[in-house]
Each structure stands twice: as C-alpha cells, then as structure tokens.
Amino acid sequence: MTTITISHDDVQHLAQLSNLQLSDDEIAALQVDLGNILGYINQLDELDTEGVEPTYQVIDLENVSREDSVQHHAADREALLRLAPDQADNQIKVPKVL
Amino acid sequence: MTKIADYVGKSAVDNVRGAIEAAKNAENFHALLSLTEERALERAAKVDSGEITGRLAGVPFIAKDNFLTLGGTTTAASRFLESFNAPLQATAVEKLEAEGAICIGKANLDAFAHGGSTENSAFGPTLNSVDTTRVAGGSSGGSAVATALGIVPFTLGTDTGGSIRQPASFNGVIGVKPTYGTVSRYGVVAMASSTDTIGCFTTNTADAELVMDVMAGLDPSDMTTLPDFFELCEAKPNQKIGIIKEFMTDDVDADVRARTSEYVERLKAAGHTVEEVSMPIVKYALAMYYIIVPAEVSSNLARYDGVRYGKRAEGGGLAELYGRSRDEGFVTENKRRIMIGSYVLSSGFFDAYYLKAQKARTLLINRYNELFQDYDALIGPVSPTPAFKLGENTADPVKMYLADVMTVPASLAGLPAISVPAGETAAGLPVGVQLIGKRRSDAQLLALARSLEDAA
Predict the structure, then answer these.
(1) Which class would CATH give A8-46?
(2) What is the ipTM for the molecules in this complex?
(3) Which end of chain A is more exposed for a tag (fewer CB within 10 A), N or C?
(4) B338–A18 CB contact, under 8 Å
C-alpha cells in the first residue's frame, strides 16, 4: 500500500484549519497516520469518473418551505444557557477577543 | 437472551429493577456508561398505575450514549461531553417512550461513533459478549453487547458505515441499519449527515420489526426524514437474491464464508433463487467512505469548541480556548478524521478527493440500481473476520478501517441492510450475514430474515 509523506508543517497547517492545538508527540504520530490514510484513499485515482454527476444526498430531497413563524422547541433559553461553561447577564461568556 | 414479549404485561417496576440488576452484574463487560435508574423507576411506576400505556409498555431498553436522553448524561463516550446533561430527548427515544418503553441507561461507543471496535471510547473499551479477550465491535459495541447479554430485550444504535451491523455480527444478535431517512436523527450526536442512520439491536426479527415500526416516520425537526413507509409484512415467496462475489474471496475468513454459504443454502431450501453477482466498484467504496465521512465529520464536529456547552479548557485567549478544548475533548481518532476532512475539503484538493469521491459514489449507486432491477435482495458477510482481539488493530488506523469494507457500500447508497446471526466459527465466535435491499425495502428484508428464523 502506498503512503504519502506528510510533514510536521502539513500537520500543523491541518491542525490550524481544524482548530486543534496539538502536542509535538501527537503531531509526529499524526504524520504517520494521516500519510497512511491518504495513501489508502488515493487508490480512488484508478477509477474513471469522467462525466459522472456527483451524489451529495441519496433520497432525492427537495427544499421544503414553511411559514416564517416562531417554532417551539423542547429546550428553552434558560435550559440552553445553563449548559454553557460560563455565562453572565443571559449571555455566554468567553475570553476577550480583542 | 431475552425478547420483548418476556416483559409485556409484567410489572414495569420489576422489569426495570431486573434490568438494572442484570446491568450491574455484567459491569465487567463495560457495555454501559451510565444508568438512569431514578427516571426509569418513575416511568415504570406510571406504567404500572396505567398512566403510561402502549405497545412497549414497561419494556426496558438502552440507548447508545450519542442519543440525547433526560435523567442522566449524554457523553458520546468523549471527555468533551463527559458531564453533559441534555435539555431534550432524541425523537427516536421520545417515540419509544410514547409507546411506554423505558430507557434504563446509556451504552458505550467509540467516541463520537468514530471506530469499529469501541476501543476509541474515552472511558475504555466494551468487551465482546462471547470472548472477553476480543472487541465488541463498533461503534455501537455497548448496545450490541447489552442485547447479547440479555440485560434488556432491545438497544438503540447508530450506523454510519457499519456501526450497528458489525457489532451485531460480532455478538450474535440482529442489527438493523434502515434506509437513510427512515428514523429521525434529531437529538442524536451528528457524525456524517449524508449516511447517519438510527437503528436497533434485538435477539429476534419480530422485535426488530416492532421497534423499527415505532421509530420510523417524518419528523419536522429532521428535514431528511421520509414519510413512514415501514409496513409489517410477510416475505415474498420465490425471491431472487444475489450473493456479492467480491465479498466471498480468499481475503475473507473461511468460517465466515462457510456460514454465509450455509445461510444461502437455507434461502434456497426456502424456495428462493440465489445467484452470484459482481460489483467491481465495491473495491473502491472504502476509499470513498474515508473521504466523504471525514469531510462531513470535520464540519459536524466544528460545533465542539468549548463555548456553548461541554468541556472548556481554561486560560489564554479565545483561539487557545478553542484549540485546547478540542485537543483535550477529542480522542486521537476524532482528530484524525477531522484533519483528513480538513485536508480533502481544502482548496486545491477538493476536486481530487471530495468531488471525486462523490462522483464515484454515483457509480456505486448506479451499480446497486442495476442489480435491484433483477434482484430482490443482496447477501454477503457483514465483516471479513469474526471479532478481533482487543488491541489487534489499534496501532494502525487503516487496518481498523478495513474492518468496515463490507458495510460501507450500503451506507454510501442509503440502502437498508440488516445483520442476521448465521452461526459461529470453529472457535465459537458469532458470525453474521448481511441482507441488503433497495431503499424502503426494510420491512421486506426483516420479513425474509424472520421466515428463515422460523424455519431454523
């Protein structure tokens, strides 16, 4: 089976795209794993898909419209706010952005 | 093993107490992550007083821990959701409760349902019900083992690429992966939205038919649900069934092939015709799957950022909060899939991977459609091997993925597929066969399996 060479920087770039902060040990292991996985999925290159339409969903879904009205859900605002790790004044609190 | 009929008409409180005792006695298998004893007993009392009635009144069940339920935590077997108390219940659970069923606890899984052995659970693996040195299968391993051990008569699972069928086959129970869209996914932790399905484990087909009949149907909260098409029926006589040649090669364990061939002989003895069919494209299905699913995973798991719910890593600014919460909350396999997804969706690679895989998916579906013009159903093994040893595949993710090679094709095409017990290997490990049908033929597949079960 073929493998693809994935560099330390490649993993770091993917981690950044994925919002993951990884340790150096994790990065080293992921270089090997991601290289092997990409090597495996690359075998799809052998398949001729010229002129074939892609499939994004399998049950012929169509858009459904409804009235633009308030829908009632099982969980109310208080219940959802209670789930937040930190909250104040009916809002979810996060560290300063700027 | 138990069946639903053993519980109907009995004291619901006794049923629940018995199931909880059975769960505690089987703790060494680590099939369950939590029990919801208090809420279960409250509901049982209401069944016994006649306040709650229905087709499943007083019947205890267990949900995979990626179904949101009240009365306890929903963890998805992850550190991220370790102490998450859902504010609402999955539609599937609500529908079962509306018929009087009682959820007594939550089953172990690979974290966020990523895996095929339950070894990716952040809380430790589930052990196989027959041989505790072997894996339960996955990702719904805890649900399969809980049914096999007879803790409850049915359990719920999710199947995105084989996560119900494979553990069912590894533990000798029935596993149903329905047509995509049969059961609402609302309130179930999303993995890959274009192939995620909700199904069940039971010890016999009649119970599976009942549970699927209760759960199926439209849900305004899940726009991919189909109008209820699930109609209990009897198996059509003289069916034409295709056995998939590519799944009966020397790469497949000899005992698995032998049990599959015996099941084929039983189909023939029951008056059906079985012919060999070829699907050369299935060779590429696993590669398609491990492009499409990580792509959807990377999108679906973006929501776990430590802000609105779940685990939050403290210290630093917002970017560090995201990055560290995600590093601590996910297991390695979650990270692999998210990063592969980021890779195949990134600009420059999108056409070569994601678009290519979605085109290949069309070719796979086309081949199924051709076959279903001539055949009522397809048959093959569920997994190339019986349950493997704990730790055997954990070092090599690709080797672990290869265990899914026979289950992912039906998932990519949205087809119903059921895993049916077909005997054991020489070493006594369960083997399952897979019956696959065209979309919406779920009830017919179960009826076919039931007709052979009756004859056995």
Answers:
(1) mainly alpha
(2) 0.94
(3) C
(4) yes
